[in-house]
Structure to design on (305 residues):
């Protein structure tokens, strides 16, 4: 039986058992087929897992990302965690920057401290944002079945993608953020109605929901957030979502300021505290979106394929 080396990590946290869970598999010999990779993802049932498929001169790494439902072209915390594994376990010595080649694009990731990988901030530069749609507050209230008092009606609701699509939904306070309750059936019905469910979307991907407020739990944070998505017709909450936060950064740069530096807290309702670092600017309609965080390795193992 062939085996793959894998690492289990928590990402967007400096401590074990916080952040978002990830498994990174090393598969330079291409032992795992797409069908096998999906089965492994379903077996682990983490939000995402990655497979490092090639290494070109220790500079460029071909990476594939799977959820328990399907392969996706881009994601946030999986890339930072994969960069952590490459830096700590695969390179002769860590580098200030490495590139990960995805189906969506090649993403560059920088290290803040090459001499201290365990305490380094890993920061990705995301692709240029696409602003896909704007929704009225009433559409969201009716479509998701939430209270009208939940939404911050002073701020627009927009769907944005940098590789994965999210509807950015500002809410009034931390209390309303904590009180959000959604039904999988209701969310699927709404997404299907607006052609954003996997069965009728142009990309074959399901759009997810990102709720955000400037009221925070911790004083060092600037925003608090929650992300909900549909996986295999079930409603799932994510503990830390780098791709959604990249879209939120584009939202802030469009509506608030042309230069943004902020920390977003996420996963607190799940008891998996996560901290996502945002740094961006927009000039002449050209966006620079940088999303960063730390990672912690929990274990290493071998997986039969």
């Amino acid at each position: 039986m062939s085996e793959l080396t894998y690492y289990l990590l928590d990402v967007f946290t400096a401590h074990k058992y916080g952040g978002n869970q990830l498994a990174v598999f090393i598969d330079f010999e291409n032992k795992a087929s797409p069908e096998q990779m999906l089965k492994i993802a379903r077996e682990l049932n983490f939000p995402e897992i990655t497979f490092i498929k090639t290494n070109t001169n220790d500079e460029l790494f071909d990476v594939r990302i799977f959820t328990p439902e399907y392969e996706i072209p881009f994601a946030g915390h999986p890339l930072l965690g994969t960069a952590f594994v490459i830096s700590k376990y695969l390179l002769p010595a860590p580098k200030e920057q490495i590139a990960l080649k995805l189906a969506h694009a090649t993403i560059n990731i920088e290290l803040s401290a090459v001499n201290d990988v365990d305490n380094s901030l890993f920061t990705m530069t995301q692709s240029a944002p696409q602003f896909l749609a704007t929704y009225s507050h009433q559409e969201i209230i009716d479509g998701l079945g939430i209270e009208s008092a939940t939404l911050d009606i002073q701020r627009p609701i927009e769907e944005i993608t940098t590789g994965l699509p999210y509807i950015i939904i500002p809410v009034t306070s931390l209390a309303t953020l904590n009180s959000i309750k959604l039904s999988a059936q209701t969310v699927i019905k709404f997404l299907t109605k607006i052609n954003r469910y996997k069965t009728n979307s142009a990309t074959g991907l399901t759009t997810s929901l990102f709720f955000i407020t400037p009221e925070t739990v911790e004083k060092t944070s600037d925003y608090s957030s929650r992300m909900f998505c549909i996986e295999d017709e079930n409603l799932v909450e994510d503990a830390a979502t780098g791709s959604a936060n990249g879209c939120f950064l584009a939202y802030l740069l469009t509506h608030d300021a042309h230069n943004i530096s902020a920390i977003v807290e996420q996963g607190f309702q799940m008891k998996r505290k996560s901290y996502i670092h945002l740094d961006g600017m927009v000039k002449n309609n050209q966006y620079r979106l940088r999303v960063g965080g730390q990672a912690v390795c929990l274990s290493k193992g071998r997986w039969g394929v």
The chain has six helices and 18 strands. The radius of gyration is 19 Å. The chain has a mean pLDDT of 97. Helices lie at 34-44, 77-90, 137-144, 174-179, 184-193, 242-255.
